[in-house]
Request: fold
Amino acid sequence: MPTKMNYRLRNKPKSKHRTPLISVLVLFVLLSLSASFFPKAVRTGFYDVSRPLWSLGRGASKSFLNVKNFFILKSALVSENLSLQDEISNLRLKQFDYGVLLQENQDLKGQLGRSAYSSRVISRILSKPPISLYDTFVIDAGSSDGILLGNKVYSSDTIIIGLIKEVTSHISLVQLFSSGNQKQQATLLRTGASFILEGQGGANFKLEVPKETDVLWGDVFVYPSLSSSVIGSVYYIDTNSQSAFKTLYLRVPGNVFSSQFVFVEKNQ
Amino acid sequence: MSSTPIRIIIFIIVFALVVVLPWWISILILLALTIYFPLYLEVLFFGFLFDTLYSVHFNFPYTGLSLTAVFLLITIFFKTQIRINRSKIND
Reply:
């Protein structure tokens, strides 16, 4: 019985996708493996290359701002100057009060056997949102400056913004509490009740609580520790008559993304 | 001038732009280059760069790397389809 054989035609086209697919796959695997086996070396290498570029970018944006400011009207500058002088005199008074209260607070803690003193490292922000896609800050202090994983990061004396999540010798990565879907425990300063805030990105938080919970507009939430560090304050409360819950929207005080420096609290 | 030196120069420029510019501008630039070049493998490197510089969860699946890989594969597939259709039209 004759058998029928099928031969592959010489001019039969091969899959057009094969070579590109293999190239993509190989490169993907190579990059993944390099990150898995040498995460520290890869990060350090990229940070070392990027650092001069970040400095260059900061310089360029500064000179661009100078050019823009050159065209501001004199009358606008005079009125802005006057309002700023008023603000400065008010802030000086508040700073005086703050200094007195801070000293009193630290003295009281000292008398109770707990010291709230901590050393902090000032650090320049190299990269931040919107350059960073992940709501993280890259700062120019690392393990050589005594920074460790989990150190707290502040934008001012009392405003805490996140924790150190990655450290190389000269650069660290800060994850903000407000990063998307990040959960952070916080205490309501006025009542002492504890809640878990949900990060929404862009220095915003969301919190859903039963309708009868005692929370007001402007209420301040603090980081649960001996010294009260502000995480955020309520700027909007969404109450729906149909729902048994209300949604609180919080924001970190001040504009975190416009600051150039942060303070990292070192472990004692 | 052959395409390799051009690709290297573009790579250096894009690297600087990705590090300095806001992420959404960087993504637009990368999208444009992926569509323009026949097989822009460098986009995988830039996705990986995003993960390395800014991501805290630096473990598999790497978000930036995975997204750029998926986008590159989609682009490869669609580009081939478009060329086939073009050749059919010419026939």
Summary: The mean pLDDT of chain B is 84. The helical segments of chain B are 3-20, 23-36, 42-54, 63-90. Residues 3-90 of chain B form one domain.
